[in-house]
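[step 3/7] fold_predict: job queued, chain A
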Amino acid sequence: MPPAPSKNLETFPNPHPDRDYSIRIRVPEFTCLCPRTGQPDFAELLLEYVPNQLCVELKTLKLYIWSYRDQGAFHEEVTNRILGDLTAALAPRFMRLTAQFNVRGGLYTTVVAEHRQPGWQSPAPVTLP
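[step 4/7] structure written:
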């Protein structure tokens, strides 16, 4: 029997807390329900973060994302709620969640929400010849 959806996000210690590096996780099959019609909404999520002391364990992230399948939520709310839950669990230096929702009624919606740890600044990009 497959595991059940869960709101429990597990973490593990960042193996390199002394270094700023980015983790990118693509979730191509996010679903929730339209709170007005009850019809499914489909999206691709892109999670990008610079960990501090903790990283998210991927299986629990998958079960967490699955937990939204039968919940009604506006695009803006669900994107910000997921970002809030992840930042509460991980306390990252930086995190960005981009939610690209599929077409509904001729409209595409993309919601981008960010968290930045107070005082943290992104390193300058390196340009190679």
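[step 5/7] annotate
The chain has one domain: 12-116.
The mean pLDDT is 95.
exit 0
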